[in-house]
Amino acid sequence: MIYPQKLNSKKSAKIIYSLLSLSIIFAIIMITINRLTTPNIPWAAFVNLGMIYTWIVVLFSIKRGINLAGHILLQTIAISVIIIYIDYKIGFKGWSINLGFPIILIVANITMLILTIISYKKYIKYAIYQLFIVGISLLPILLILEGKISNNLLNQIAIVISIANLVISLSLSYKDIKDAIIRNFHM
After folding, report:
1. pTM above 0.90, yes or no
2. Domain contains 143
3. Which of 1, 43, 53, 113 gets the highest tally of CB atoms within 10 A of its CB?
4. Cβ neighbours of residue 91 under 8 Å, at least 6 residues apart?
5. At what angle do helices 101-118 and 153-172 cross, to 10 degrees?
């Protein structure tokens, strides 16, 4: 049986560099075409934003020893920024904050809950990322109180899932968290 040859780090670095260079050239071409054909519609910005997002995901995924919870946090932040930017560029109708952001938060919290249930023995590795995602998930409460977003059902569901996720995760891993606090703070 013949197996494919494994790429060494120099070859893979050259491939990544080449593809990154091609992406930059492609981005410049897209901007040029956009300016020449439809300068009042910023579609090239969306294409380039998608490429940047893809490169963030690819480079972060290639990194060895990646923490899955860190990857979920990065995805949550990156996708949130992208949809808010797109909404802003097309005239800010508010769909990014009233629909997109709550959906992203619901998916991130459910993913973290599943990750916690599947690997609750390793919860300490994910705890800090879990807290960041819960913190981000509670932002809609502040935005609702300030009147920046509507108090719609989707925002309420995102907030409830976030709080429930935190409570369930803490209850599943209470002993591990207690042991880590005692160990780290010498109590």
Report:
1. no
2. yes
3. 113
4. none
5. 20
